[in-house]
Design goal:
The protein is of the alpha+beta class. The protein has a single domain, classed as Phosphatase 2c, domain 1, CATH 3.60.40. It has 4 helices and 12 strands; from the N terminus they run βββββββββββααααβ. A 7-stranded antiparallel sheet has the order 1-2-3-12-11-8-9. A 5-stranded antiparallel sheet has the order 4-5-6-7-10, with no helix packed on it. β2 and β3 form a beta hairpin. The longest helix has 12 residues. The protein is globular, with a radius of gyration of 15 Å. About 40% of the residues are buried.
């Protein structure tokens, strides 16, 4: 794991079984959690921490990544993830809340933002979401998240992808 601490955020990159690379950022009141539950499953949760004495994660987006490249994306009262491919991008789950199973290839990334980060919608985030897919696909995830959240300052986010020549099962065509 590579980690960077600043006055405003914590940024880290994890590598997981199956060739997954998870780059996550936590700012004020944000949670980005990465856990391996057993040898074939890694879970990523992006959420806003509740204010006051409330406990629990009421609104979150979670992704369960398997070693064969599948990702089950679940969203509850939070923005859906954005699947970015060379041909464009789309929300996952496709209908906002709920869940959707997608296969992530080496040339695709999943962008997840907490509600606080998404609601802030600074100009840089607008350019990222409405610009060409290469903004997300060709950028270093660490640098991209750091630049996006420099303007936001609250919430959390993650970029999930698979690095080339990943160990594990063969990718599907």
């Amino acid at each position: 794991m590579v980690m960077q601490l600043t006055e405003r955020d914590v940024l880290r990159t994890d590598h997981a079984v199956g060739g997954w690379q998870i780059t996550a950022i936590e700012c004020r009141r944000g949670l980005a959690q990465v856990e391996s539950h057993h040898p074939h499953l890694t879970e990523i949760v992006v959420a806003d921490l509740p204010r006051g004495r409330a406990s629990g994660r009421d609104c979150f987006t979670a992704v369960a990544c398997t070693d064969d490249g599948d990702a089950l994306v679940m969203s509850r009262q939070a923005p859906p993830a954005v699947l970015v491919t060379r041909s464009g991008h789309r929300p996952v789950p496709g209908h906002g809340e709920g869940q959707e199973l997608v296969h992530i290839g080496g040339d695709q990334r999943l962008l997840i933002l907490s509600a606080a980060a998404f609601d802030a919608l600074p100009e840089s985030l607008g350019r990222t979401l409405h610009g060409p897919p290469s903004i997300v696909l060709d950028a270093d995830p660490f640098t991209l998240l750091h630049s996006l959240f420099r303007e936001i300052g609250a919430g959390s986010g993650a970029i999930i992808g698979r690095y080339p020549h990943s160990p594990g099962r063969q990718e599907r065509p």
